Amino acid sequence: MTTEHPLAKWNTPEIEDRNQRILQRPPSLKISGMHKSFGHDGKMVKVLNDIDFTAYKREFVCVVGPSGCGKSTLARLIAGLETYEEGVISINDEVVSGPGPDRGMVFQSYSLFPWLTVKKNVMFGLVENGMSEISAEAEALQWIDLVGLERFANSYPHQLSGGMKQRVAIIRALANKPKVLLMDEPFSALDPKNRLKMQKYLLEIWKNIDITIFFITHDLEEAIYLADRILVLKAHPGEVVETLNVPLPRPRKEDTFLSEEFLATKAYLESLVHSEEEEVDMEEKLSMVRMVSVKSDVPDIF
Amino acid sequence: MNERFSSWASPRTELDKTSKRLLTAASFLLPILLWCLVSYSPYIWHPQMEITSPGQVSYFREGSLVDREVFEIERNKILEKTPEATVEQLPQGIPSNPVYLPAPHEVMTAMYTAFTTPPKRSNEPWLHESLLHSIQVIAWGFFWAMLFGVPLGILAGTYSSASYLIEPFTEFFRYLPAPAFGALAVAVLGIYDAPKIAIIFIGTFFQMVLIVAATTRKLNIALIEASLTLGCKGRRMIGKVILPGVLPDLYRDMRILLGWAWTYLIVAELIGTSSGITWFITQQARYKNFDNVFAAILMIGLIGLITDMILAHFGKRLFPWHQNK
Ligand SMILES: Nc1ncnc2c1ncn2[C@@H]1O[C@H](COP(=O)(O)OP(=O)(O)O)[C@@H](O)[C@H]1O
Ligand SMILES: [Mg+2]
Q: What family does this chain come from, according to its entry (chain B) (predicted)?
């Protein structure tokens, strides 16, 4: 017996059709039968258990899950920064081993090279992959134009705001023309206003170039706003709970955040993720606070 | 004003400009003040008497220093024999400090006169020649230590394999006191500058390897991983990411280590034929010219401090991207 998915009623034929078309595209990133453990005091602790997932060409995938469920580890595995014991990761049907220019990565912490100017940062990957300095510079400047940082081309990273730094990090990764862009909570250090701005930027860039985005976040709203599909993980060990089609039309607008389908999706995701997160018994703690007598000029705040 | 003082007593609080200047000045002025007090106020220490007139004491000489106790005993002896002794019969003197504690003004004068006084013998170096010689020994010793220490340290900080190969022995060797190799260095390298340079080298090289390795290891791993995902591989990474990434910290390490190199100088210069500023100091101490001795010691301190300030200044210009000074 199959019960209807709680979000089924939001999947309009239009959205359904678009999702079907995505699934018919050639696979871009394919993870199958992936296991990953870390050694802790001689014991192996399983972090990712039998992950199967396929992202299709030019798809925007977000990954959510409770903290510690292995989201970062998954991104690092795809990037080739970690080794895995079992399974296969392939990009465009080529098996991945070690880091490579087909996968770009944007990290949570600012990882621009502080000793290089914005321009040189963007040129870094191009030059490393054999482009001449002159053409690399021309190309870098184009990217810098694209994100509106012309005035900062010769600034050092420490002179930029957090949002600008992440914009440079994104174009630095994109300049290499990767097939897949991996992003590990790239906007989590930004304030809400800047974050929204960056999300719009990212969607704009994604629309215009041939790239599959694998975006990790713990912000459910961010995931819903950005993603075609959301990969929901659970912890201990990290496993796929569900791959959720986001029932929102594209292009996404700002008022999307207030729409009914958005709130329904958020509530549903919350129920998936938070049932996982360990609930501390706050009630007990609070009752202890009540026992502390308050001697104050304002005896009651209500 | 009260706010200022409260900021002095709160942990890890940035001070205002005036406070900073005030305290920096005080850091030098307080020890100097103490020195002045001890030198110019006869009531604080002055354990000796400078004889101004020997009176009836046969072995007292005008201008010589005797302990106060001895002076009192001799005076009382005369008073016992002839209670109505006149001023001429009694020894006279003024309280003074021992010869090894010259007063500030004497040392200040010596800072200048030490340079203008010709050496006792014509084949001996002038003070500026001695100082230059010392600086050369330090520079060479430090140069050789850097030439080998920095690359080895960076290797050890980058590759675990290099770390296991290099660091255990270095860790052991750095506990061996550099001066202990003095005799050996002379036997192998002769009596002139080579063994001195070797002592400076031994004193700094092993520390340098370990410190550079630790500094290299502190480089944000995200930078290395970012460069990996951008296609930077293998040995190229040392030149493109690791070296530029640690350069400002490396520069700071070198400044600290250069300070250590100075501390090995005195021992190094005693090895073989005594030379440089150490030779000057021992020579002047032998003649009991302690004002010159103090002046020479101060000069070492000043050279060290000034070099470090110059290097710090250049550091700011060399690494404009480096924020936390
Ligand atoms: N290098 C490592 N060594 C050992 N354990 C690790 C390492 N990296 C991550 N882990 C563990 O793997 C789990 C998942 O971590 P991570 O992927 O960072 O989670 P998330 O990004 O979802 O918060 C955590 O329990 C963490 O302690
Ligand atoms: Mg994480």
A: Belongs to the binding-protein-dependent transport system permease family.
